[in-house]
TrEMBL record:
EC number(s) recorded for this UniProt protein: 1.-.-.-
Family listed: Belongs to the class-I pyridine nucleotide-disulfide oxidoreductase family.
Name recorded for this polypeptide: Dihydrolipoyl dehydrogenase family protein
Keyword annotations from UniProtKB, A to Z: FAD, Flavoprotein, Oxidoreductase
Cofactor: FAD
Length: 478
């Protein structure tokens, strides 16, 4: 395997020319680089940290590893016979060790061979645009490599946690998403500022690991962009877990005291904790990318069209979180494939075979809490705002399958948003234990614009929770 550096006789690093340069080897960048290589494009990928990116080491994988043991324990407690076998709390040290195993001990050597097998050249270091189709990479040893792309440069550097300008917050050394997913200990008391996906998932993970957690949300509901049933049922569940959920929380100041404790001052009081997690959104990692070369402002998202090409330069593409369209790993991977196909088509004198239209109308997402929240497409409010005549079908998750999950009572709900004029599904939401695996069927229905009259012939298996589709279609009179 080569590291992308070529040297002249004097030992100085020489310029390297390839067909395409991908800056960032997270999931989106890996997909783009691999697909370009599959099409015969000589491709180099630049990575300053670890191949696999945040998703593999500080986001999706470690967060779910921290959540899964608590979910499994509670699932067992809901089933007679299994409940009697659960005799104690989670073993926090064992959970943290499981997390470390899930991220391969923060070692990316297991992911690098995939790039090598594709024939993709890996260049370690920080990449920066320095000219048209030119990326300069500074390695950890101070050496530089200049990569010139014959066809395209793809930016895939992801996003970082945003820290709001609250007085004292930065000086208090708060945890961000990276810190909480890589934590070496479970704090006795934790304050979480922000109730987005990161805040909600880590609130529940650390509550079930033994922390006393206070969740601070500025608004008046959890997950306000989703169907109301999601926020309502999740609020009930977190409260039952022992979380102190505070709505309308106005954080005025944060200070870390001499003894290491953190005091969060609110408009109506204080909260004292051992650590504070800031989960107040994300910002694109574009500060050091040299966007000035194409007239863009560093620190902001890179605007792109539906082929993921920059509006400022025909050779520049941006995929994943860095373009600000949809901050989800699977959508970044989807964009990587679309961008790669567009680059190859244009390099060969043709037109892109497809565009990333799913980013607008069919984005699936799962909040991996307990209950899970799985949603795709438009909510009823979004559909109405878009001008659709809407029918909303709602039902609880009462099926034979959900009874087997929790005989004493299954907390859950399902919503279908239907375009009344065309009788097709515009959006779907499922809330409940283990509902995430229902989501792809809804995604296919939304993407395929399957009429309800046809969906009735997609017969769900008995006794599974997918029978909720029958209940929803009955609500529709189909």
């Amino acid at each position: 395997m080569t590291d992308g550096r070529e040297q002249d006789e004097a030992g100085a690093e020489a310029d390297v020319e390839v067909d395409c340069v991908v800056v960032g080897a997270g999931p989106a960048g890996e997909v783009a680089a691999g697909r370009l290589a599959d099409h015969g494009m000589e491709t180099a990928v630049v990575e300053v940290e670890r191949v696999g990116g945040d998703c593999s080491f500080w986001a999706c994988i470690p967060s779910k590893a921290l959540l899964r043991p608590g979910h499994a324990r509670h699932a067992a407690l809901r089933v007679p016979g299994a409940a009697q076998a659960v005799t104690g709390p989670l073993d926090a040290d064992a959970v943290l060790a499981f997390r470390d195993e899930a991220v391969s001990g923060y070692d990316d050597s297991g992911q690098v061979p995939w790039l090598d097998g594709k024939g993709v050249r890996l260049v370690r270091g920080e990449g920066r645009l320095v000219g048209e189709r030119v990326v300069e990479v500074r390695g950890s040893d101070g050496g530089t490599t200049r990569l010139t792309a014959r066809h395209a440069v793809v930016l895939a550097t992801g996003s970082a946690a945003a820290v709001p300008d609250v007085p004292g917050l930065r000086d208090a050394a708060p945890w961000t998403s990276r810190d909480v997913t890589s934590a070496r200990r479970v704090p006795e008391r934790l304050v979480v500022i922000g109730a987005g996906v990161v805040g909600l998932e880590m609130t529940q993970a650390f509550t079930r690991l033994g922390s006393s957690v206070t969740l601070l949300e500025r608004g008046d509901a959890l997950l306000p962009r989703l169907e109301p049933v999601a926020g309502r049922l999740l609020t009930e569940a977190l409260t039952e877990d022992g979380v102190d959920v505070r709505f309308g929380a106005d954080v005025r100041r944060v200070a870390r005291d001499a003894d290491g404790t953190v005091t969060v001052t609110l408009a109506d009081g204080e909260v004292v904790a051992d650590e504070v997690l800031v989960a107040a959104g994300r910002r694109p990692r574009t500060d050091a990318l040299g966007l000035e070369v194409v007239g863009l402002e560093p620190g902001l998202a890179v605007p792109v069209d539906d082929t993921l090409r920059s509006e400022r330069a025909p050779w520049l593409y941006a995929i994943g979180d860095v373009n600000g369209r949809v901050l989800l790993t699977h959508q970044g991977k989807y964009q990587g494939g679309v961008a790669a196909d567009a680059i190859v088509a244009r390099a060969r004198g043709g037109e892109p075979p497809t565009t990333a239209w799913a980013d607008h109308a069919a984005v699936p997402q799962v909040v991996v809490t307990d209950p899970e929240v799985a949603a795709v497409g438009l909510t009823a409010a979004q559909a109405r705002d878009a001008g659709h005549e809407v029918r909303v079908l709602e039902h609880d998750m009462s099926t034979a399958g959900s009874y087997l999950h929790s005989p004493a009572g299954y907390r859950g709900g399902a919503v279908l948003v239907v375009d009344a004029a065309r009788d097709v599904v515009l959006g779907a939401t499922f809330v409940g234990q283990d509902v995430a695996d229902l989501l792809h069927s809804a995604t296919v229905a939304v993407v395929g614009e399957v009429p309800l009259s046809r969906l009735r012939h997609a017969v769900p298996s008995f006794p599974t929770m997918s029978e909720v589709w029958l209940r929803l279609l009955e609500e529709a009179g189909v």
